Amino acid sequence: LKNLTDLSLNINKIKQIDNEAFLNLGLLNRLFLNYNLLTYLYAKMFKYLNSLIYLQLDNNLIKYIEKETFW
Fold it and tell me: Rounded to whole angstroms, how far apart are CA atoms 59 and 11?
């Protein structure tokens, strides 16, 4: 999975994502998280995704995004 560039996790009823979930996915360019149950986006959630250029979060239940989530 180290060389994975695209990941679709659409329609999986995901409620939360662990801060280390993407630890070994540093080459990931595109991440799709549409149609899940995410409510909070935390600052460290995407910290290992250094190559990420496209993130889709359509149709979730997002209520709160921490200040440095996309920093």
Answer: 10
- Encoded tokens for 8: 């679709």
Express each pLDDT in 34-62 by its tens digit: 999 999 999 999 999 999 999 999 999 99
**What is the number of alpha carbons within 13 Å of residue 32 lying toward its C-beta?**
10
Which residue type sits at 61?
A: L
pTM of the full predicted structure?
0.93
Residues 6 or more apart whose CB falls under 8 angstroms from that of 10 comprise: 32, 33, 34, 35, 36
Tell which residue, 55, 25, 54, has the closest CA to residue 41: 55
